[in-house]
């Protein structure tokens, strides 16, 4: 059974993993109607992520027919860190790595714990809550907002802008989704111009204020467009993936009550448990690379300039890499999953995301060890990102 990303089978969003298993087994390089290919085996993705000469991240060729070169979405997605190669990727990444230094991350954890505790206090007043709206989605907005020192009263639009912009990466777009994404980029840039102008006059501590660091960096100085679009990328990436990580963890631990009981009895497993959630229900299910030369992979000829869809969700359940890949194994070691991609494009914020997941899940379980997910869950309905838009729970 092959898979066509623009014509998904019924039930795919609920459970894509049987389809991914068929891809790995029978169609490890699965052709698409537009000439692109899905690649699904762990070893292949690992190889591609490490080879920056034959597989590049630049998406101008792919996004030109999709958005048009004058579209705000085109400017954003061809300027942001994730869809670029050196030298821009190197310049932005170096600044970001410096900002995510151990001192900065250590200074954020007490505030994160306070935030999570306050959210749990709020939801404890209700017997039933939507864990996405009231908990999982609220955490990264505050964390990333703090990282950029964005005034709290101005953070409300960030989540909707993020969903609209990242939603435009789906293989199939409606005119309404495209229009919403373009408007979100314009609104986000206008918002950032005000914030940046103020920060130039009133800079923060570049050791802990990412925006100040991006503005003041002399080595690899960014143009205004590069600055605005990469701020949008960082704010979006930090929101979507962490929201999905926390929500997916809540669902997995509801399905597997034995695993939940073990985590409650052995809370020290939370670090490896978070990585196991990232492996089993990767918040980011697909990456992309463009080939720079003709090649053959598993007997399939792939021309230069071909778009490859790297199926992280399939690779992270590849039995050739992971024993019992469909089982939630809280103490799994080693666990070299690809939820944060790999190679030069390994996610800059992986340590922060793990910290958010660790604090959020452990604190939630301490407070509500007998919670139950109720009927009415809604998947976000996207291919590239896997998570919930609604996750109702009873806080027993």
Average predicted confidence as pLDDT: 93
Beta-strand segment tally: 12
Q: Major sheet, described briefly?
A: 5 strands, mixed
Strand content: 5-15%
User: Within the largest sheet, what's the order of strands?
Assistant: 1-2-8-5-3
Q: Helical stretch count?
A: 16
- Class from helix and strand fractions: alpha+beta
End-to-end separation: 42 Å
Q: Uncertain segments of ≥5 residues (pLDDT<50)? A: none
Order of helices and strands: HEEHEHHHHEHHHHHHHHEEEEHHEEEE
Query: Roughly how many Å is the radius of gyration?
Result: 21 Å
Based on CA inertia axes, which overall geometry fits?
globular
Helical percent range? Answer: 40-55%
Describe this structure in words.
- With 396 residues, this protein is α+β, with helices and mostly antiparallel strands.
- It is 51% helix and 10% strand.
- It has 16 helices and twelve strands.
- Helix 4 packs across helix 12 (224-255), helix 6 (102-123) packs parallel to helix 16 (350-367) and helix 9 packs across helix 12.
- The mean pLDDT is 93.
Secondary structure blueprint with pairings:
Blueprint: H1 17-26, E1 29-31, E2 37-39, H2 42-50, E3 55-56, H3 60-67, H4 72-79, H5 88-99, H6 102-123, E4 128-130, H7 131-136, H8 138-147, H9 158-167, H10 175-201, H11 210-216, H12 224-255, H13 257-265, H14 270-280, E5 286-291, E6 295-297, E7 300-302, E8 307-311, H15 312-315, H16 350-367, E9 372-373, E10 378-379, E11 388-390, E12 392-394
Parallel strand pairs: 2-8
Antiparallel strand pairs: 1-2, 3-5, 4-12, 5-8, 6-7, 9-12, 10-11
């Amino acid at each position: 059974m092959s898979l066509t990303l623009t014509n998904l089978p019924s039930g795919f969003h609920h459970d894509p993993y049987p389809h991914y298993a068929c891809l790995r087994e029978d169609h490890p390089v699965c052709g698409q109607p537009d000439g692109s290919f899905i690649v699904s085996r762990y070893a292949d993705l690992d190889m591609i992520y490490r080879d920056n000469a034959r597989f590049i991240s630049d998406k101008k060729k792919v996004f030109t027919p999709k958005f048009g070169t004058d579209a705000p979405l085109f400017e954003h997605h061809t300027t942001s860190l994730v869809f670029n190669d050196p030298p821009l990727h190197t310049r932005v990444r170096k600044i970001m790595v410096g900002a995510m230094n151990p001192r900065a991350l250590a200074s954020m954890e007490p505030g994160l714990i306070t935030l999570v505790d306050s959210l749990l206090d709020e939801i404890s007043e209700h017997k039933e809550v939507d864990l996405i709206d009231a908990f999982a989605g609220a955490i990264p907005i505050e964390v990333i907002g703090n990282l950029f020192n964005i005034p709290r009263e101005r953070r409300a639009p960030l989540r909707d802008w993020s969903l609209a912009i990242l939603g435009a990466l789906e293989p199939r777009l409606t005119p309404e989704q495209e229009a919403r994404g373009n408007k979100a980029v314009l609104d986000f840039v206008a918002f950032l111009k005000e914030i940046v102008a103020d920060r130039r006059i009133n800079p923060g501590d570049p050791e802990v204020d990412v925006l100040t660091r991006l503005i003041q960096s002399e080595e690899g100085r960014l143009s205004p467009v590069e600055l605005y679009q990469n701020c949008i990328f960082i704010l979006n990436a930090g929101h979507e993936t962490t929201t999905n990580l926390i929500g997916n963890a809540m669902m997995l631990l509801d399905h597997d009550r034995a695993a939940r009981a073990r985590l409650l009895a052995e809370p020290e497993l939370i670090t490896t448990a978070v990585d196991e959630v990232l492996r089993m229900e990767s918040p980011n299910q697909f990456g992309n690379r463009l080939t720079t030369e003709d090649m053959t992979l598993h007997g399939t000829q792939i021309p230069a300039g071909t778009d490859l869809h790297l199926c992280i969700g399939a690779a992270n359940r590849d039995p050739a890499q992971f024993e019992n890949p469909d089982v939630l194994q809280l103490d799994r070691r080693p666990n070299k999953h690809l939820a944060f991609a790999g190679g030069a494009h390994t996610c800059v914020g992986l340590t922060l995301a793990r910290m958010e997941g660790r604090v959020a899940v452990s604190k939630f379980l301490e407070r509500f060890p007998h919670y139950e997910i109720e009927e009415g869950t809604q998947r976000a309905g996207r291919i590239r990102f896997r998570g919930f838009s609604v996750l109702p729970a009873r806080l027993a």
